[in-house]
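Posting this for the archive.
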Amino acid sequence: MPEPVTTLAPAATDRGPSPRAAVLRAEITLFRRDIFNVLLAIAFPPVLLGILGAIPSFRESVPELDGLRVIDLYVPVVVLISLVTAALLIYPPILTSYRELGILRRMSTTPVRPSTLLVTQMWLNGVMALIASVLSVLVGRLVFDVALPRQAGGYVLVLVLAAAASLALGSLVAALARSGRHASGIGVAVYFPALFCTGLWIPVRVMPDALATVVEFTPFGAAATALGQAAAGDWPAWSHLAVLAVWAVAATVAAVRWFRWE
């Protein structure tokens, strides 16, 4: 009588990391190698705040500003500059260079989706920008005695939404640009108007009403006003939070829609 044949199930194979985890690991490795961009993103905003605070008149109370000092107003501005710098000057050229080098073309044959790559880049650049933001707040507090935000929860919420909106715009630039040089040109062209909207040259609160209304419909103007409200102890206006959320969602959807592998 023949012996029964035993059928063994094939041994489970290691499926390896998910596409998202693989992309994240690779991008972190590349970020560590590009020390210049890391230092620019993290060190530039606190250094800028130190330069501004070194101006004697910026450390004196101004009656027209309800007794605040100019340096008090510049801490939220520098926080936003950290987001704008990472989103418009650092992020788009990196992603666009992948397209020029054919890296994206090779990635298109893998399970990686455009949204995975964009979200990974947004997350990494966002972490750097938020680190720079925290350092700027600490420099303002420890060096220039700037009060910490009185409405901490609202301040953090605005920071997260502002980072999402800024990096979504950076994703859109990277999706549309044809080359790294093109991405840098577009980024610079958007960067300086964005700095104006943050209140770098004229604080949003002292702008003419008509100009302030227009500026507050931009993500940077809305964030500047909302951060000022949270710093003073008020919950940020829902209208400003809505502006940031709409910009973040709309720019992200557009970036994913128009993203090109090559």
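The CA atoms of residues 54 and 163 lie 28 Å apart. The chain is about 70% helix and 0% strand.
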